[in-house]
Amino acid sequence: MPAPAAPRRPGSTLLIPVHSGREAMVQAQLASVAAAQRSAMYPVEVLVITQDIPAISGLLQAAFPRFPIPIRTAVCCHATTLGQLRNAGLRAVTTEWLHSADSDTVFPSEYFVQLEHAMVGWIPSVSCFQLNFAPLPGGSCWACHEAEIDQRVLARYIGTDSVWGLNGMNFVARPDLLLSLGGFAEDLVSAEDVEFGYRLAAAGVQIVFLPEVRILHHYPQRLAHILRRKFWHGQGYAYAFQRCPTLFRRRWEWRADVRRCASPTFACYYLSSHLAFLAGVCASWLSKRQQPRA
Fold first, then answer.
1. How far is residue 272 from each of residues 14, 230, 252, measured CA to CA in Å?
2. In the CATH scheme, what architecture does the domain 9-218 have?
3. DSSP secondary-structure letter at 158?
4. I need a labelling partner for 135 at 20 to 30 A (CA). Which of 102, 170, 211, 251 fits?
5. Where are the domains of the chain?
6. How does pLDDT run across 125-158, given as a tens digit for each residue?
């Protein structure tokens, strides 16, 4: 018989997947954790996991010699997708709660206090906060436009009444629950978080949106970098949509988009970003079709 699983420690682990090029972002994120107000939902440790920054441990030790909670690091060289990296981190968590945060998010000082107040009294198994976010102050107009479009898209599957998908930007969950349903899809280029949230909802797991909790998101500032990000998203969503046919249950508010396109800069970004996304979708489908059949 397999040995019984070790009991989980009280508290939460802040899990941060990070890839090369985001070293400065994860340092800014950890600085915001250190400066944040304490609460019952403040993490008891941080786990930073990467596949391509072998010196991550020394980098963080040099940047934070006296961090208020332990920082663990792990390098998973075998991981080729974000789903594989997320699952490796999920299996390494030893606390009763997993607090997943992408490395391009920053926590306001009141974040963990807001989280405790939002969860008090009922403690949902999975909670998300995606709609109540804002780009970091001082960003470019392109970053602000991308944040606005992100919120419109997320609102089609995340709401106060029900949630049909996740966004890895930030969520809190019971790690045993996530593991029991197989974890994140490891074959998707991106959108593995959205697809997993859809599977959770289909399995009857209630995902709760907590509008009281607010986070800040670091977006690329240059248009070319944001369009490259949209192309990458399109590559993953091409197959996520096939697996999640009823993800977008709320209708597209196209009239609001048309009104916003009265702004020339927004119209320019709206068209170019959607073209980049569709190009990613097409590239993913063509790549799949050209693979030899077994």
1. 35, 10, 19
2. Alpha-Beta Complex (3.90)
3. B
4. 251
5. 9-218
6. 888 877 788 888 888 999 999 999 998 888 888 8
